[in-house]
Amino acid sequence: MKAQCLTPAQVQTVQTFHAALVNPRTKAPIFPGLEHGGELMWRGPGGGGYGTGQWLRDEVFQDRNWNYKTFDFDSGLALADQLDGGLMTLSPNLRNFLVRGGKLLHYHGWSDPGISPTSSVDYYNSVLNSVGGANNVQNSYRLFMVPGMGHCFGGEGPTTFDPIRAIEQWVEDGKAPDRIIASRWTAGKVDRTRPLCPYPQVAEYKGTGSTDDAENFVCKRP
Fold first, then answer.
1. Which of 19, 30, 45, 187 has the largest CB neighbor count within 10 A?
2. The pTM is what?
3. SS3 sequence, the chain?
4. Domain identity same for 76 and 122
5. 202-206 long-range contacts, Cβ below 8 Å, gap at least 24?
6. Dihedrals φ, ψ of 123, to 5°?
7. Cα–Cα distance between 181 and 118 in angstroms, integer?
8. Are residues 146 and 40 in the same domain?
9. Which of 88, 84, 18, 83 lies closest to 51 in space, CA to CA?
10. For position 48, what pLDDT does the model report?
11. In the predicted structure, residue 2 carries a pLDDT above the cut 80
């Protein structure tokens, strides 16, 4: 049993992945850490280039000799934001989008190993703060967090769903997505369905019926 345990150094590495990234000089938060429960996805889709600095090396600085160990958090983040068109500082001000009647369906896997799921939650909350609360955005912007899903797809949970159909009904029929049914496929067959709920709601079991059937769950605030 002991041979299956993590070493102290490995435990520290895991804790580092879970912790938020902060500027080592100012201690200011930069980006949230990965979520607990998604560790099996760290070698899956999206788990490579971000953690090793490949995104900064190849896409931002475009320098094959760039070394993440020499990264300067004060000047480097500003340069990365400048070169990558503002990716690091997304504006939460969606007022013009909302006024025009735009519809935004935003989803993120809770087990994403490449981009922290909490970043989407933080952005959603920043939009609410920017435009005056949930009542001002729920008809135009909804966030769906997907339990067990990795980077855009795959994972242990029910992660197959149709966001295009959901937003089509929202735009063309005026039916805002109160829940989206997701399915899990095993050996070519669906063996579990669950509702995806608009954040901050979560799927709650009704207490009767199969836990593999989405109909036996309701969306509620935790």
1. 45
2. 0.86
3. CHHHCCCHHHHHHHHHHHCCEECCCCCCEEECCCCCCCHHHCCCCCCCCCCCCHHHHHHHCCCCCCCHHHCCHHHHHHHHHHHCCCCCCCCCCCHHHHHCCCCEEEEEECCCCCCCHHHHHHHHHHHHHHHCCHHHCCCCEEEEEECCECCCCCECCCCECCHHHHHHHHHHHCCCCCCEEEEEEECCEEEEEEEECECCCEEEECCCCCCCCHHHEEEECC
4. no
5. 203/147
6. -65, -45
7. 22
8. no
9. 18
10. 47
11. no
pLDDT, one tens digit per residue, over 73-86 is: 888 877 777 776 65
Same domain, 99 and 208: yes
Residue 90 in any domain: the answer is: no
Cα(90)–Cα(121) distance, rounded to whole angstroms?
Answer: 13
Q: Specify whether the CB–CB gap between 169 and 176 falls below 8 A.
A: no
Q: Are 130 and 48 in the same domain?
A: no
What is the domain extent for residue 60? 2-83
Contact 181, 190 (CB under 8 A): no
Percent of the chain with pLDDT over 70: 91
Q: Are residues 189 and 122 in the same domain?
A: yes
CA separation for the pair 69, 163 (Å, rounded) = 39
- Residue scoring higher pLDDT (71 or 159): 159
Residues 60 and 114 in one domain: no
Token representation of residue 222: 């935790």
Tens-digit pLDDT profile for residues 16-56? 989 998 888 888 888 899 999 888 888 754 444 555 577 77
Q: Which of 60, 83, 106 is the last residue of a domain?
A: 83
Are 103 and 77 within one domain?
A: no
Whether residue 129 sits in one domain with residue 71:
no
